[in-house]
């Protein structure tokens, strides 16, 4: 999806882009290719939108139609766009050690659980937010698989590899 700034001063292209996103999210709407021209395709897509949303069907984007399109566009964009990533911040040289409780350990335990479905050598730890013995053992197994020092602790290097391996494991998990 193009950045919002690329549509400034291009209201027709903005309208067409919003209609396209809405159609990608809800197939009842007509798909349109944003070309910046308010031609027959745009009139048809606007008319179809108006019909579906109980607006007066004119094919013209008046204020009520524009507001209804914007209201439908925002949630549709969330649905078709990539999920918001979570940025995990570990301080420089931070290491989460055995026995420590940390919110990132919940994520780590979830990732290790998925990885355990793909790699038989990794046992799924419990979900408690504590780097307990089971989590440390799973981390050690993961570290061994990736030729890292087998500390059973969570450092930035281990986190980086966990984060990189998760999407691959997730895809393998759901392709079964």
How is this structure best described in words?
This protein is mostly helical and 176 residues long. It folds into two domains: 4-80, Orthogonal Bundle (Muramoyl-pentapeptide Carboxypeptidase, domain 1); 103-174, no CATH class. The chain has helices spanning 11-25, 40-52, 63-80, 103-118, 133-145, 156-174. Helix 4 (103-118) packs across helix 6 (156-174). The longest helix is centred in the C-terminal third of the chain and has 19 residues, at 156-174. The relative contact order is 0.10. The model has no long low-confidence stretch (mean pLDDT 91).
Briefly characterize the structure.
The chain has 176 residues and is mostly helical. Helix content is 53%, strand content 0%.
Rounded mean pLDDT is 91
Rg from alpha-carbon coordinates: 24 Å
Largest sheet entry = none
Strand content: under 5%
Question: Mind telling me which CATH architecture of the largest domain this is?
Answer: Orthogonal Bundle
Distance between the termini: 30 Å
Please write out the topology.
Elements: H1 11-25, H2 40-52, H3 63-80, H4 103-118, H5 133-145, H6 156-174
Record keyword descriptors for this entry:
mainly alpha; 2 domains; 6 helices; elongated; Muramoyl-pentapeptide Carboxypeptidase, domain 1
């Amino acid at each position: 999806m193009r950045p919002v700034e690329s549509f400034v001063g291009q209201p027709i292209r903005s309208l067409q882009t919003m209609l396209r996103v809405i159609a990608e999210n809800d197939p009842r709407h007509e798909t349109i290719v944003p070309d910046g021209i308010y031609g027959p395709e745009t009139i048809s897509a606007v008319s179809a939108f108006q019909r579906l949303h109980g607006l007066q069907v004119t094919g013209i984007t008046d204020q009520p139609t524009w507001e209804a399109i914007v209201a439908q566009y925002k949630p549709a964009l969330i649905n078709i766009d990539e999920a918001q990533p979570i940025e995990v911040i570990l301080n420089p040289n931070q290491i989460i050690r055995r026995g420590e409780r940390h919110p990132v350990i919940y994520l780590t335990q979830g990732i290790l659980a998925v990885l355990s479905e793909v790699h038989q050598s990794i046992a799924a730890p419990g979900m408690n937010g504590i780097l307990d013995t089971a989590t440390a053992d799973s981390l050690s197994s993961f570290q061994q698989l990736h030729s890292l020092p087998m500390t059973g602790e969570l450092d930035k290097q281990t986190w980086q590899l966990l984060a990189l391996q998760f999407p691959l494991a997730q895809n393998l998990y759901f392709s079964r």
